[in-house]
Every structure is written in structure tokens, then in C-alpha cells.
Specification:
Layout lengths: L9 H15 L10 H10 L6 H8 L3 H11 L13 H8 L1 H12 L11 H24 L4 H10 L3 H15 L6 H22 L4 H9 L10 H18 L6 H5 L4 H4 L3 H8 L2 H12 L1
Length: 287
């Protein structure tokens, strides 16, 4: 869907210069997270937060609370039977996962406006949610921390819809529209910078910021290298599940991230068998 290998002509260079200027001077409009979501993220960073206190925060927004209950009862999390209370859901998902679930409810196609590119924004959202679910599943198989990776997977490409929105706006205001190919190429050029700006403004955990920063070069991620490698792997699994013609099984077997996370061929085979289960979870969360 996105092609980074485009040659910038004078028109696209001019738009790129304007975008650079917006970024340099901080003129990037960051979507506002609902108050309850911001409170949940703050609470999840506090080791003193317990299930009772977090449930009280969630109960202030029934829509977010219902979304979290839906995730807790989705096939990928519903081991041990259905849950009926928020405290049960919090105990099952964990604080970090709860914050990810709250963010997933807020970060949707309606948050960004890019006339003519609605399908692309919807696809980005679907892929991000799939990556979040696969991040959790891969971390579980690799016996890594499963809580932190959901939010990292969900926000790893948050700069794409944001940069797309700004590029479409700038090209329209300049009266010098660009082709779809040029627009999406510019998105690839700027999406990381937009993403870092957003996760910083949203005061996301340091780990999330580092995954966004190093997603294109996980070897430089330092302490976040393993988590970044998991999210990159999850992104490939998400693509293989949603658009199988773009990523083959052989490619999944030969990802450069596999050695870092110690994911072996038999485990990959097992994960591939979960495609339908992940799809069902996505449908439940989005419905």
C-alpha cells in the first residue's frame, strides 16, 4: 500500500519542505485522547494502582468500559470462561493491556481526516490492531512480557494516518495536488516523525516511544530491541493475515527479527494456525 521508493519532483519537494517546516516548529495537530483514556494511561504507569481504583476510572466512561470487557472476553483472552466485571477484566488483562485497549477504542478512522484516502486510513487502523493482537500472541509464544507489547503494536504506525492527513491538507492548500503514489511515498518519508510527535504528546510509556522510533531499525533500539523485534514480526504476520499476497509463509519463516526473539519454525507454524482466531478477535473488538 505504501511505497517509500519514489523520486521527489519539484512539486513533491515543495510539499516535503512545508511538512518539514511544520514539524520543525511543532505545528502538528495531535488528536486529543478522551479524558478517561489519559487517566487510564497515567494510572497504568503507577505501580500503586490496583484493580479497584482502575475500575472506578473506567466506570466514568461506559463506552470504554464496554470495549475493554469485549476484549477481555474475545477468543484470544477468554481462557477460563467469560468475565462479568471490570475488576475481573483488569486482573486478566493487566494494567498495560488495559491502557492499550482504551487507546484502541479511541484511535480509529474517525480520528483522522484525509479526503479521498478514507480506505487507506481504515486499512492502517485494521493493520495496527492486527499487529497489536499478533504482538501479544508472539510474545506469549516466545515467553516474553505480553502486557507491554499490545500498546506498542497498536501505535507502531500511528504516524501514518497523521502524516497522511497533513500531506493531503498541505497539498490541497498549496493548490498543487500530488498523485496517490506521491502522497503515499511522502507518508513513508514522514510517518516516523509524526508518530514520535504523537506518542510524546500523548505521554505514552518510554517503551512505546522507543518502538516507534526504532521500528525501521530494531538493532539500534537498545533496551527496546526485543520488544521492537516482536512488533516488527507481528506487523509481518498482520500483513500475511490481512493481505496474504503481500507476505508469504516462506517470508515469515525468514524474517531477520526471528533470531532476536528466539522464534522457531515449529512455533511459526503454530502461530499461522491462529489466523482465524485473531480475525475473530479483531471482529469482536471492532464491532
Amino acid at each position: 500500500m505504501f511505497d517509500a521508493a519514489i523520486e521527489l519532483n519539484e512539486k513533491t519537494k515543495a510539499i516535503a519542505a512545508l511538512i518539514d517546516d511544520f514539524l520543525l516548529h511543532g505545528h502538528v495537530e495531535v488528536p486529543v485522547l478522551p479524558t478517561v483514556v489519559s487517566k487510564i494511561i497515567t494510572a497504568s504507569k503507577n505501580s500503586a494502582t490496583d484493580a479497584r481504583r482502575l475500575a472506578a476510572v473506567l466506570q466514568s466512561d461506559q463506552a470504554v468500559a464496554a470495549h475493554i470487557m469485549k476484549i477481555a472476553n474475545s477468543p484470544i483472552y477468554s481462557y477460563g470462561g467469560p468475565l462479568v466485571s471490570l475488576q475481573q477484566a483488569i486482573a486478566r488483562l493487566g494494567l498495560t493491556m488495559i491502557s492499550g485497549a482504551a487507546v484502541s477504542f479511541s484511535v480509529n478512522a474517525k480520528m483522522f481526516e484525509a479526503p479521498g484516502y478514507e480506505a487507506e486510513i481504515a486499512e492502517i487502523g485494521q493493520h495496527s490492531l492486527a499487529t497489536a493482537l499478533w504482538s501479544k500472541e508472539i510474545a506469549r509464544v516466545c515467553r516474553k512480557n505480553v502486557e507491554a507489547v499490545f500498546l506498542c503494536g497498536l501505535l507502531h504506525s500511528i504516524g501514518r494516518p497523521s502524516s497522511l492527513e497533513k500531506i493531503v491538507q498541505v497539498s490541497g492548500e498549496s493548490g498543487d495536488g500530488v498523485s496517490r503514489e506521491e502522497c503515499l511515498g511522502l507518508v513513508e518519508q514522514f510517518q516516523q516523525k509524526f508518530g514520535l510527535h504523537i506518542v510524546d504528546e500523548w505521554k505514552m510509556p518510554t517503551l512505546v516511544c522507543n518502538v516507534v522510533k526504532h521500528f525501521c531499525d530494531f538493532e539500534k533500539a537498545g533496551d527496546a530491541k526485543e520488544t521492537t523485534a516482536i512488533v516488527i514480526t507481528a506487523s509481518k504476520f498482520a500483513t500475511a493475515m490481512l493481505t496474504p499476497d503481500l507476505v508469504s509463509k516462506d517470508e515469515l519463516m525468514n524474517l531477520e527479527t526471528l533470531e532476536t526473539i528466539n522464534l522457531y519454525p515449529d512455533q511459526i507454524e503454530s502461530l499461522i494456525e491462529n489466523f482465524e482466531e485473531i480475525k475473530i478477535s479483531m471482529e469482536m473488538i471492532c464491532s
